[in-house]
Amino acid sequence: MTLAFELEALQSLADPNAVFNDARQWTEYVGVVSEKPTYVVTNFTRKHRVRQDFFSGPRGVAESLTNVKEQFDTDRHVLVGTSDEDAELAESVGWEYLPLEDAADAAGWELAGESEAADPFESEERDDWP
């Protein structure tokens, strides 16, 4: 399988690096596509230490998905996205579409904002505090 994440979907994950590492266990290729400029994708993936097999570069998502499908001959090509537009785009270029929530639920990935991180500024009530 070739798995592509739309950038917004990837940004919605609590730990994009962990998701990519997990996906590598059951996919042959995994990458990122976006209409955003290349530097936006590159900055995000570097910051989160995401090693991608492909990215959209200066091309749009439709052209990128078409090129990836031609380059990576796998039995399935799946786009993980967040919108109806992502679904329509995937269908228009012959890719399967999987909503992020469904993918995260099936794979056990945590979405950003799902975990309640401890607030370092929140403290117990104190008697000696004014």
Strand content: 5-15%
- Return the CATH topology: Rossmann fold
Helix amount: 25-40%
CATH architecture: 3-Layer(aba) Sandwich
Structural class: alpha/beta
Counting copies of identical and different chains, the oligomeric state is: single chain
Distance between the termini: 60 Å
The count of domains is 1
Describe this structure in words.
The chain has 130 residues and is α/β, with parallel strands linked by helices. 39% of the residues lie in helices and 15% in strands. It is built from 6 helices and 4 strands; from the N terminus they run βααβααβαβα. β3 (77-81), α5 (84-92) and β4 form a beta-alpha-beta unit. The longest helix has 11 residues, at 61-71. The model is unreliable at 118-123 (pLDDT under 50).
Provide keyphrases for this structure.
about 130 residues, 4-stranded parallel β-sheet, Rossmann fold, 6 helices
Per-chain topology:
Layout: E1 2-6, H1 7-11, H2 16-23, E2 29-33, H3 38-47, H4 61-71, E3 77-81, H5 84-92, E4 96-99, H6 100-107
Parallel strand pairs: 1-2, 1-3, 3-4
Short overview:
Helices cover about 40% and strands about 15% of the residues.
